[in-house]
Design goal:
alpha/beta; seven-stranded mixed β-sheet; six-stranded parallel β-sheet
Length: 348
């Protein structure tokens, strides 16, 4: 089969690799019908995160179940399934409290399972899914093509945005600021609206992304960054600050912005993968600012978000503004790196 591999900074290749097989009775084999490039994939792509030449990459995919192991009970061949960005048993004591990304028996796409067997990454033609019953979420029937982008976001960015808003304790009537206008930031904005925020300030200076932000529920857009952006939001809130700030980037600057935006007693949700970020605990203490977030347990949120998509209540797939065949995966990465695309979808 063909699958995406990373060979160094800015060196993405499509390689011919062995077809995956069912190895354990709890496995499923999924034919990928759509995958995508994540903003977090850009860290190793740019050489900021360490990588090994030839390593597999990609953690967001949907597809059709081709084969299942003898112990798999919740999905069957022919089912359309959504795969969260981590695999889990969904039954261990950690999963039972809703943190499937820390599953005692789970792991990450593109690595190895607990028995040392290879696990495929998402940007390829097929994936062996360990612990299929706990990992995969099926739809009642194979969806129409127009729903696939919406459902694909549930693999990561929509669930991550939901986690950000939830971690910030967004409440009905809140004023919220969203730091970051990538796919996660836009989905966090949509989530804040769904969770009841009535005033949502998008921090964005990218015209196409700002337009999606407004479509998703932004009431104001602030193009300035850093201190100027903070000053602008302060002006908009009569010097008070926002009830909740959603940090969706993962840099020191984005976290500093979120901290400066939030009012005394306010709340910060953070889901951007941290890079050189420090949190000034004394400042949080002095202003009674609450902070929460981390790796989003999207498996926990997936069934409810799936139902919202299938009911036509949300269309998070609007974040996809570039669709390319898997053969052109290098262009998908380049376009996102150069901000020519918000999020790129890969089709077989």
């Amino acid at each position: 089969m063909r699958a995406t591999t990373l060979h160094g900074a800015f060196d993405i290749r499509l390689a011919e690799l062995p077809d995956p097989q069912i190895h354990r009775p709890t496995d499923a084999l999924v034919r990928v019908t759509a995958a995508c490039v994540c903003g977090s994939d850009l860290w190793p792509y740019r050489g900021i995160n360490e990588s090994k030449p030839g390593q597999r990459i990609g953690h967001e995919f949907v597809g059709i179940v081709e084969q299942v192991g003898s112990d798999v009970a919740t999905v069957r061949p022919g089912d359309f399934v959504i795969a969260p960005f981590a695999w889990s048993d969904n039954t261990c004591r950690v999963c039972r409290v809703g943190i499937q990304t820390s599953c005692e028996n789970g792991g990450w796409w593109g690595g190895r399972d607990r028995e040392g067997l290879p696990v495929d990454a998402g940007q390829g033609e097929f994936v062996r899914v360990p612990l299929a019953d706990g990992t995969l979420v099926a739809t009642p029937e194979v969806p129409s093509a127009d729903l696939v982008p919406d459902l694909l976001t549930l693999s990561d960015v929509m669930g991550t945005g939901w986690h950000c808003a939830l971690s910030a304790g967004v409440r009905p009537g809140d004023t919220v600021a969203v730091v970051g206008d990538g796919a996660v930031g836009l989905c966090a904005l949509l989530s804040a609206r769904l969770q009841g925020a009535t005033r949502i300030i998008a921090m964005s200076r990218h015209e196409a992304r700002s337009a999606i932000a407004v479509e998703f529920g932004a009431t104001e857009v602030v193009a300035e960054r850093g201190e100027a952006g903070v000053a602008r939001v302060r002006d908009l809130t009569d010097g008070f600050g926002v009830d909740a700030a959603l940090e969706c980037v993962g840099t020191a600057e984005s976290m500093r912005t979120a901290l400066d935006l939030v009012r005394p007693g306010g709340r910060i949700g953070f889901v951007g993968v941290p890079h050189d970020v420090t949190v000034p605990i004394e400042d949080l203490f002095a202003r009674n600012v609450h902070i929460g977030g981390g790796v989003a347990p999207v498996r926990e949120y997936l069934p409810a978000l799936r139902d919202l998509v299938l009911a036509g209540e949300i269309h998070p797939g609007r974040v996809f503004d570039l669709t390319v065949p898997l053969a052109d995966v290098a262009e998908a990465y380049a376009a996102m790196d150069q901000r020519r695309a918000t999020k790129a979808m890969l089709l077989p």
